[in-house]
């Protein structure tokens, strides 16, 4: 199969990832754990089938590009500027402190040299883009205050590591490596760093001035062709093209380039369609990232250097995250925000692998040192989903300030609207026009504060979280409308509302037959699917009917059950 290395890698990776991911899910463990184990199974350190380990990292990089492009589609320039006061100093301070912790553990605990210790600490100082973004998406945190701060923090870390990859080779001789001068040459080093920042600045300026006009315009023109294939190709061309161009021309990382491409495209009205069209590819290549990480892992390192691995893991999961927690608290944010950010950063990934490889090349790290870093990275990635699960279990105790702002309402016979996006805002406007008493529940603090400023009752938080629906007085409501697009989240909300008020009429939205059935099983009385409503309105206009005369066989989910 040497002549079919790519195909055998994809088949081996996807099949084993599916099997182990399914097994992990059945055992109540995050699928990420299964994906990592799949990589170990098809990696070079275990018997049996061995995938091409040279191709896997490049495919994984595609996953990083598409993931960061998708994250950029959820952000605006204003979102980033709003968190700069904590993201910039917070990320820089955390990098310095985490590097110092790693250096101290390596030098005083493991007996490594100062140069090796600094390289070791630097590799442990930054979080994995893919792991962090997957966690934020899974827990619906990207559009929250915590998500915006974490993404801003991650971007600063990304830029810092790009600079580190320039600085470390120049300092390798002074640190005890084989390259560079034994004495630090300040002027050449300052010039190299200055050129690096100039390139980053030029890239950002180019994206804001030219890309801001060109990218949305190109996508608008492609959409006029009404070709789904061309639109999808245009999105991929923009994401991958900008990422590659930023790396080739400006020495900016693929991830940062892709993020800015998504950030610019966010201003287009087609951003939501772009996000939806790239979602399957993002998921598939993100799985390849975890598989490729697992392929790097040599399990024997746990036997040969158990204490070094344990010390590394403690620095990543405890030391680094504790530092982040203290920094966020120092900036005056609540404990809930500090905990979420610290848990998000309690892992390492791509840049750790790159820095470890650079360290080996420069002889600042031994092969075993790199193995210890990889072991710490993989174990931290495995542990991270459990940390998020623990975070959700303690959230009721850490979210006191948020709940204090959500004082229980005294309204009766009111409508509870869950979600205030494009659909929810239209529903809210119509309900107010009809003089209905309404309470809105949304996770976005900016939306909630804006509604409150207009004199509308609004509650901040996840509607399926303990105490939120109770704050909206769901027991005495006359109707609940779930306008959130995520069927899984909506099902959780509906199930909780049905538990708290068994007779409450519940209306929800869906995008497919499967989602309709899912929401009905969880207690929704009336589920509206977009395609059915479009067809009904077309029939009303075309034949003057109501659309209800369509046969049951041709549109089984369009016939909504009557209320009981």
Can you put this structure into words, describing what you see?
- The structure is a single chain.
- This protein is mainly alpha-helical and 564 residues long.
- It folds into two domains: 2-398, Up-down Bundle (Na+/H+ antiporter like fold); 405-543, Rossmann fold (3-Layer(aba) Sandwich).
- The chain contains 24 helices and six strands.
- A six-stranded parallel sheet has the order 3-2-1-4-5-6, with helices on both faces.
- Helix 19 (422-433) links the parallel strand 1 and strand 2.
- Helix 15 packs antiparallel against helix 17.
- The chain starts with a helix and ends in a 21-residue tail after the last helix.
- The model is unreliable at 398-404 and 547-564 (pLDDT under 50).
Biggest β-sheet: strands ordered side by side in the sheet: 3-2-1-4-5-6
CATH architectural grouping of the largest domain: Up-down Bundle
User: What would the CATH topology of the largest domain be?
Assistant: Na+/H+ antiporter like fold
Tell the overall outline.
Answer: globular
For the sheet with most strands, the description reads: 6 strands, parallel
